[in-house]
From TrEMBL:
Residues 7-181 form the Glycosyltransferase 2-like domain. Belongs to the glycosyltransferase 2 family. The keyword Transmembrane does not apply. Keywords: Glycosyltransferase, Transferase. Signal peptide: none annotated. InterPro entries: Glyco_trans_2-like (IPR001173), Nucleotide-diphossugar_trans (IPR029044). It comes from the Bacteria. This is Glycosyl transferase family 2. It comes from Chloroflexus aggregans (strain MD-66 / DSM 9485). Pathway: Cell wall biogenesis; cell wall polysaccharide biosynthesis. One of its GO terms (molecular function) is glycosyltransferase activity.
Amino acid sequence: MKPRVAIIVLTYNGISDTLACLASLKRLTYPAKRYDVVVVDNASRDGTPAQVRSTFPQTIVIENGVNLGFAAGNNVGLRYAQVHGYDYVLLLNNDTEVAPDMLEQLVAAAETDSAIAAVGPIIYYYDAPQRIWSAGGSIDWRRGICRMAGEADDHGQYPARAVDFVTGCAMLIRVAVLDRVGLLDERFFMYFEETEWCVRAARAGYYCYFTPTAKVWHKIPLNARFDREYLAYYMTRNRLLFLHTTRVSWRTWLDALIRQDMRTYLSLWLRPKWRTRKGRIGMWYGWLDFWRGRFGPAPRVVVGR
């Protein structure tokens, strides 16, 4: 008998994307009685819960009432999976669509070794269906940099393999691991929380895995850049929180703070071709909030820009 899987689709507005995602999940070849779709709604203002219940009545809908962010919102789904006895839980962005055999391939990979904490699929750009957005992630511990493999057309160049992390955009987690490793760290709110969780799992004796046979398409712009103030804020603050939480060396801190962050910050002010890009205010508040221990959602002064 196939393992039971809870598919957690976290939503915050974006109803059209959510309905398309759920429609793709209806086409899964995985046995229907062995998986459930759980929409966890972070207080959407576009009628998401009602429309999901109407269009996909078999879907379980949990309404949070407030926007908890990615980490805390998904933790609601992870707790649901723990309480209701699922073997695996798949975190899946609502702006994705999946191949019919995606879940079968993820579970098959996870079942090969009980030491696998999480499995990630190959993720393509929706607008360029053969261009890879993510094929597993690696961590450069000397510089404190987390990178996802990808940004190229798929020619079979990324084999199934152990990886340092998989993106929370589509991440199959073994529920039993949660008892030992814990849930996502809610201080991050959004970004870096899944990477920190994968490191925590590795240090507990597990590892993460990537399989290219499981396929997902992500509706992220091809030219997406982190040049909005709130994105610069989260990427700056949360990277520092990641380095602190994973206890990197002082050499890594020097490289991250001086060679990387300071150079980027000065470039945003001084280089003519960067002056039109946003991020200066977000980076400043990201640094400030990390050092004073302010985590969770970004401050209004950043979100409003």
